[in-house]
Amino acid sequence: MVALAVLLTLVICVVVDSWLSRRHRAPAPAVSSQPATEPLPHLSAPEYAGGFSLHGELAFHPGHAWVRVEGPDRVRVGIDDFARRLLGAADRIELPAVGTVLCQGKAAWRVGRGQRCAAMLAPVSGEVVAINPQLAAEPGLVAQDPYRSGWLFAVRVPEMRANLSNLLSGRLVHRWLEECASRLRSRVQGSMPLSFADGGTAVDDVGVLLDDANWSGAVREFLLTHA
Can you give the pTM of this predicted structure? Predict the structure, then answer.
């Protein structure tokens, strides 16, 4: 009987000690519900065509969005230097939500400044899997740094090869941008005297050189959408 009493006492002590340890154990840190910050894309030195910058590892949609392949079924999307100079310093951006399914060549987001707002076309088909969290508070990043901190969203693209076949890359991008620059220069000089610095890059905010009707026409011509 004495041995049984001692054994029972030991069991009770172990249970009580375990209970006290659980009470005083520090709570596990809460898991943040905020998405992890996406790393900025690493890009080569910029190249120039028609006064507008580009990067060789990017592919471009004719509606002036860029695509960077980041995996076998994932790309990152943004607007190119031509579009950001035409649209100017954005004060609002309406991005598709995570989970939205995009269709290549269909309107996917809008960029606005003041009374002006333009839709832009999705450069690929797929599901939006991440958006740039900084743009909600700083939409102007799209104009300040369109190829890095001003990126828009990431997309999972099941049919990567088919999507990329409809985009421009390599020397085709240079010829395309030079042709766009020539047409934009004619449009701007039809209403204002000077649009580009001689031998240099395009003026930083081409949109301010265009009245509302001419700007809307430029959006239709170059972004392939409507204002």
Answer: 0.81
